[in-house]
Prior knowledge:
α8 packs antiparallel against α10. Helix content is 38%, strand content 24%. It has an 8-stranded mixed sheet with strand order 6-7-9-8-10-11-12-13, sandwiched between helices. By secondary structure, the chain is an alpha/beta fold. The two termini are 43 Å apart. The chain is globular. The longest helix has 18 residues, at 23-40. The protein has 2 domains: 6-130, Hotdog Thioesterase (Thiol Ester Dehydrase, Chain A), CATH 3.10.129; 143-398, Alpha/Beta hydrolase fold, catalytic domain (Rossmann fold, 3-Layer(aba) Sandwich). The structure holds D-malate. D-malate binds at residues 164-165, 229-230, 325, 353, 379. D-malate (MLT) binds next to loops.
Amino acid sequence: MALPEIDLMVYPDQCDAYGHLNQAAFLVLFERARWDMFVAGPGLDVFERAGVWPAVRRASVDYLAQVFPGDMLRFQQTLTHLGRTSFTLRQSARRVRDDALVATAEFVFVCLGDGGKPAPVPAVITGLLEEMPEGEAVRRVTVNGVGLAVDTAGEGAAILFVHGYPLDRTVWRHQVEHLEGWRRIAPDLRGMGHSDAPDLGYSMTTYADDLAALLDSLGVDEVVLCGLSMGGYVAFEFLRRYPDRVRAIVLMDTRAENDSPEGRRTRDAAAQAARESGARAVADAMLPKLFAKETAELAGEPWRQVERMILATPVPGIIGALAAMRDRADSTALLESMDDLPALIMVGEHDRITPPASAHRMAAALAGSRLEIIKDAGHLLPVEQPAATTALLADFLNRLPPIGD
Ligand code: MLT
């Protein structure tokens, strides 16, 4: 949800010997932005009036760029989770003059009542959620002890969209909005987007089990499973564990092969970089490889959209996903065993991460599958070629045998 934006100026006395904003002073600015938000909204004493006090239980900050005296910072705050006695705010700070994302932070609060005991979140906070414009509410479902954000739209047979690394469900925005006649379900995997990011508990198995539990709680038995890149790796694991729940499969910009020894070392190096320098290190390494030259040059917005997604990914989610990808099984034999499964394989002609050669190998393994190579696209088909991706999906889905055949 969008809470009021707050602008705060950086003063020289908040800066350290290097001349840039000191990290502890930055934390204080995040704090001030939160309080100013309440001043602009329900009032600074809102918690006191409700008889509780919000105590910070966990704070994490990703510092992404240097900030200097005189910089004006714009703070945005998003309420990402609302529990019975706790809530989570995700904050971001952008430099106003160039709109650069300079830091993100996440704060988990527990409301304390009489005697310092956890107490229900006051109605005014739940009220803030209810004031959200229709359609913007992030639906959350708790599965296996982890809150997952999920977008759903439409009625009919279900299609489950699984995003790649380190992205979120909004890569499927066009498909979720426009794929009429289907019940579209697009969750954020644990550790990414607006889902919870536990410190531990990441593997292809847990991702697949989360999705199965999500479908249970949405009352969905069977889906067309559509995975983008790492989402494809999760789809393979889902297929291995829950074959009866998959009616057809769509594999986009992904590959059945697992990581080579060198690839595994690269995952560990990326995890180390994320540990040391946060999501910025991952964004810098990945962004130049994700897009086809054409889409990167022509369209600044998809690039920025994906950059924002990467920078907003919590570090535990990044590290967890890297380990899960490093340790995943090879799925070639699995695909070879899926004789009757209707399958669509799609890849951008300029995909440098999972190139067309990998798509050809999947098509050879999956007898009867349909392979589509998409022009002017790299590794992110639904973002780079949203309308063409939706049109191909619709065509594939409309040709599927009716349920029960
Ligand atoms: C993804 O886009 O999900 C990942 O880049 C896939 C990978 O690194 O293997």
